[in-house]
Design a protein that fits this description.
By secondary structure, the protein is an alpha+beta fold.
């Protein structure tokens, strides 16, 4: 089981390495987390887009507007990585969907 998680982490890290990661984590709140049907992003940084990935690096959703009400209804329960883009780069947050 540990082998699968290590492979998934490697694939996700490789997939997420495109672009310039920036450090604005302290300015971003992803809530509620864990989430059921909707998640919101609160930040004082203007966002360009948000992408949601599985742990194996598959992109399952992309949002380019309305970052305050992101629907998760089409996603199964699990752990996802949320890649949040601004003009200066991006950051990644973990999201749990119940």
């Amino acid at each position: 089981m540990k082998k699968i998680y290590l492979i998934a982490f490697f694939l996700f890290s490789f997939t997420m390495s495109y672009g310039q990661k920036i450090d604005f984590d302290h300015n971003i709140k992803l809530y509620p987390n864990p989430a059921h049907h909707v998640v919101s992003i609160q930040t004082n940084v203007p966002l360009q887009k948000v992408e949601i990935y599985t742990l194996v690096g598959d992109k399952v959703h992309q949002i380019t507007k309305n970052f305050h009400n992101i629907s998760l209804r089409h996603l199964p329960r699990g752990i996802y990585m949320v890649k949040i883009y601004s003009r200066k780069g991006y950051t990644v947050k973990k999201l749990i969907k119940e």
